[in-house]
Design goal:
Length: about 250
């Protein structure tokens, strides 16, 4: 098995995408990322810890908006089943990472929209929402195979640490961002939004954390992925990668 210290990485050229929102310039503190206003460029050879399978499944975001996000759960069909059937019907394989980033931003902008500022119980700021939007956009490039193997992993997998490097969050702020990201566990409306929106990225969000904000991030996994295999491999490699992300903030 490939370890965190001996990654296998495909040969790939840098790619760029123009996004609706200007990204924070300090993303350049993360290896392999450069930002010029609305343009985000990723150099795979420098960014990824592991980049073995640069293909993804995407569904058109406009179609998700029109046909899925308002879907009501019924006694015959849970939202997860609706999302799975949507992915099976509309998901398409792409090898274009820029398209993945564009779709990832659309999902992130929906899930972490500014209207959540001031909502009781969330205690979230515009800056924290922006950090979550930007990090989860880049997280869309991560990939896990059906057997649970982590095939594409970059620093933004561990987004609480990556956003601390970029936005200067202290440990408490980093944990707060982590808890906001995982808040879909606790609020059923937000959990439902997450299930349906992530169909655009070909699966469902699976959290790396167990029951507390331990900075383990997460990834969109295809339905049917071996979760035990995923958990075992993540636990075996994540600490080395997390240390590397933290080190990026010390340079």
């Amino acid at each position: 098995m490939t370890t965190a210290t001996t990654p296998r990485t495909t040969e790939s050229k840098p790619f760029s995408v123009d996004l609706p929102e200007a990204f924070t310039p300090e993303w350049s503190r993360i290896d392999g990322i450069t930002v010029d206003g609305h343009t985000v460029t990723v150099n795979p050879g420098k960014y990824f810890f592991r980049y073995e399978n640069p293909t993804w499944v995407l569904a058109d975001w406009d179609l998700v908006l029109a046909e899925l996000l308002d879907a009501a759960e019924t006694s015959d069909q849970a939202v997860e089943q609706r999302a799975l059937e949507f992915v099976k019907a509309h998901g398409q394989v792409t090898g274009d990472p820029a398209k993945v980033l564009a779709t990832g931003y659309q999902v992130a902008a929906y899930l972490f929209r500014d209207e959540y500022v001031g909502v009781g119980g969330l205690d979230v700021t515009e800056r924290e929402l922006k950090a979550l939007r930007e990090a989860t956009t880049i997280m869309a490039l991560n990939r896990v195979e059906l057997d649970g193997h982590l095939s594409n992993v970059g620093p933004c997998w561990f987004f609480p640490l990556a956003t601390s490097v970029v936005f200067g969050f202290d440990e408490d702020e980093g944990k707060k961002v982590d808890e906001l990201y995982h808040g879909g566990w606790f609020n059923e409306s937000r959990r439902r939004e997450s299930v349906l929106a992530h169909a655009a990225l070909g699966g469902r969000l699976v959290h790396g954390c167990q029951a507390s904000a331990d900075m383990a991030g997460g990834c969109v996994l295809a339905y049917g992925t071996d979760l035990a295999g995923f958990r075992a491999e993540l636990d075996s490699v994540r600490h080395d990668w997390m240390d590397q992300v933290v080190a990026m903030g010390r340079r």
